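Entry type: protein chain
Record version: 2
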Amino acid sequence: MKFIDLSIPIINPEELIFDPETMELNIAYNNHDQGAKQMGEIFELQPEIHLPIGKGWASEKITLSTHNGTHMDAPWHFAPIQDRETIEKKALTIDEIPLEWCIGPLIVLDCTNYEDGYVLTPKDINNKLEDINYKLKEGDILCIHSNASQYYGTEEYIHHGVGVGRMATLHIIRQGIHIVGTDAWSWDAPFSITAQKWEQNRDPSIIWEGHFAGIELGYFQMEKLTNLDNIPPVGATIYCFPIKIARASAGWVRAVATLPE
C-alpha cells in the first residue's frame, strides 16, 4: 500500500504562505531549554542535574483560524441552514459530520487546462468524468486539481485556481457526493478575480456561489489540498477526518490517500 500526503503543513508565513494577511497564523515554539526551566519551576529541581541530558519538554502555542492549513468546511460555514432543496434544517457543524463519509474512493479531476478564475459548470464536470470513463457513485470523494498547486507556499497561491460554480456543485452533490475538495485556496474562484468580475457586472450570483450552494444541499468541502497531481483519476482511497471542534464551521484535516502497490 502506498500512502500519499494530501495536506499542507500548518506553518509560519515566514516559511511558506498559503493565506492572506487577514488570516495570518503564528506558531510560537517552546524549546527543550525553556521546557527544562518550566519543569524546574514546577518540580523544584535543577534540570542539569535531575533531567536526562539536562533538557525538558518541547511544546508549541498556535494562534490560527479553523480555515488555516488543509481543512474541511462544514455546511455551517456557508449558512445557518442547509438542504432547502429537500427538507430545510439547521446546517451541520464540523463535529457533526458522519464519520463514514470521511473514507471513500478518491476521484480526481484534472482541471489544469482551465485558466485561473474559470468557474466550472455541470457540463465541464460531465466532460471531465467522461474523459476518465467514470460515473460518480454515492460515497465518492471528488477533488479538483488546479493550477493553484504550482504556487504552493507563495503569495500568489490565493490568486490561482478554478472555482466550482453553484450549479456544478449541486450537480455533484445530487449524485450522492458528501465531501469534495480542491488544491486551490477556495472551492470558489479566487476572490481577486471574482472581485474584478463584480466590478464589471455587479451580478451578486457570482459571489461565493459554490459555497452558497450548500444552502440548497448541504455538503462538506476540503480546501488547500496538495499532491493531487500524484493521484490517478480513479483507484485511490482517501482518509480525511476533520478535527472535532465543537460547533465549528471547519476543522483541520490530515488528508491522506492510499494506492495499491
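Comment: Helices lie at 32-43, 47-50, 75-78, 122-131, 166-173, 191-201, 209-212.
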